[in-house]
Every structure is written in C-alpha cells, then in structure tokens.
Amino acid sequence: MKLSYTEKHSKDVRFTIRVTKQLFSKHSKFQQIDVMESKEFGRFLTLDGLMMVTEKDEFIYHDMIVHVAMATNPNIHRVLVIGGGDGGTVRELCRYDSVQHIDMVEIDKMVVDVSKKYLKQTSCKLSDPRVHLTIADGLPFVRNKNDAYDLIIVDSTDPFGPGEGLFTKEFYGNCYTALSEDGILINQHESPYYEKYAQSMKRAHRRIAETFPLCRVYQAHIPTYPSGHWLFGFASKKFDPILDFGPEKQAQWNALGLDTRYYNTDLHIGAFALPTYVKRLLEEPEQEATR
Questions:
Q1: In 3-state terms, what secondary structure has residue 184?
Q2: Is 155 a catalytic residue?
C-alpha cells in the first residue's frame, strides 16, 4: 500500500509527499504530532497536519532565522528561543562561541522528546550546556523579563492553536521589555502568497511595527512550506540589518568561518529586497490588515 502526506495550502491547493514509513503518530496535550520518512525529503515532522521541518530543507529556515541577527550584532550573548522544539534554531545558535546562554521555551514536551529520538539532525545540540530548556507557554514566560536577552527568536508554529498567543501585541510588547537596549527580535512571519497566511503575516508585522522603532521583513525560499515563499520579521531597538551591515561587519562574520548552506553575507542584504506585492501587503492600512 502506498502512503502519502497531504497538506492543505489553500481551499484549492494541496501539497503531497510520498511517504515510505510512518515513524511516529500521537496526540499530545496540545496537538497531533507525526514523524514520517520520505525518499525526497528524508524524515519530516508535522504538527496538526502542518509541515514543520524536513531533513532536506530545514537548513534554509534555520540559517535564516538565526544568522541574519547574529551577523547584524556580533555581540549577542544571551538568547531566548520561543518554540523551536525540533532543535534546529538552537543548533545554529550553538555554532557561535560568543553565545553564552540560551533559554529555550517550548510548550509541548512531546515535540522535544520526539525530535530527540527521530530528528537527530536538528536536535543534536539540545544537550549543549549553554541550553536551558523550559517546558512552558512562551507568553507568560517572557512577561516578567526585563533587559534579559540580546536576541529573542520566535520560532513558533502558525498563529492558531498552541502558537496563537505568540502573535499578539501584548507578547511583542513583553519581548521589547525583555530585550537589552540593542536587542533584536526575529519572528517567523508566515507566507505572503496565500490569503490565509498573508493575513497572519500582516497582523504580526503590524503588531511588531507598533512596538519596535525599527522593523523590517526579509524572505527565503523553503520548498516544503506553503507556496515556498516564506518571510521573517526583523525588529530592533538599535540595529538596522541593512544600514548597520557594512563591509567591516560582513568581514567580521565571514572571519568566523561558519559553513552555512543557505545564508551568506551577500544574501543577507538581498533577502530584504522584497517583491512589490509583498511591500504593498505590508503597507496596507490597519483596517485592511486585520479584517
């Protein structure tokens, strides 16, 4: 019998991968968790039927959610990762000797446990002594933090279910307070292409722009995510990821010798050059962005 995984990208679009083996399937306290194996993408993790990570293209997402901020500010020492239960974001952060402390807050312990067992490619650094894992909701965790982090990465699921509270004005305001005076917030920003995802992207961008003095959006191509066109939000109290990323800082990052498969300092600048339709979505007035 042939097995397949199919995800609904819109009411008229389906994305299907042929599956060679079902490795794990169970409903946690929060969501349905599945791990499958495929010939094309290797092992992959889905939550409530939505693609989270595949062995073949995870490097794109994790490169871009980590290295853009780390290259913009080389003096990042304290990091908070909210979500990211597969461990890929922590793995990339651990490549920097300058990072001294990483708090990782994941609401669903089963996601972490399953990733450790089946997705060793991404979870391989969760045992690093700099990593401190807390199983909790990221919203109350960050609520009482003040000047605690140089970088916060919101590596959350989509803005419904367990991840819904991580796309609110209250949450982004708490992140602002939790960051140091030159702190950076990176947010996975959904896709601009299909309407449902675009609405979520606009709401998140609007909330962040209301909170942070500097707010930009950048992009990457991730084949297994809806439309393949994925956005990230960069918000900061001080650093501009383009204007503050001159030749000296580029040389400083390149001197680290990190062997990245997607990110590089040329791509860093180019990733912020958005298509016109995306710019227009981001510029829509509030009543259109939230309807």
A1: strand
A2: yes
Write down the pLDDT at residue 180. Answer: 98
**In one letter, which amino acid is 12?**
D
Q: Are 235 and 185 in contact (CB under 8 A)?
A: yes
Which of 225, 190, 195 is closest to 207 using CA atoms? 190
| Residues contacting 71, CB < 8 A, separation 6+ | 245, 249, 250, 253, 263, 265, 268
Per residue in 108-165, pLDDT (tens digit) is: 999 999 999 999 999 999 999 999 999 999 999 999 899 999 999 999 866 555 555 5
Give one word for 169, left, alpha or beta, with left for phi > 0 and alpha for psi -120 to 50: alpha
Token reading at 271:
């990733």
Spatial distance between the Cα atoms of 221 and 242, rounded to a whole number of angstroms: 20
Per annotation, catalytic residue among 34, 86, 103, 155: 155
Q: Is the Cβ–Cβ distance between 239 and 72 less than 8 Å?
A: yes
Report the pLDDT value the prediction gives residue 146, as an integer from 0 to 100: 96
Please say whether the beta carbons of 86 and 122 come within 8 A.
yes
Query: Tell me, what amino acid is at 290?
Result: T
Residues of the chain under the 50 pLDDT cut: 288-291
3-state helix, strand, coil in the chain (%, to 5): 35, 30, 35
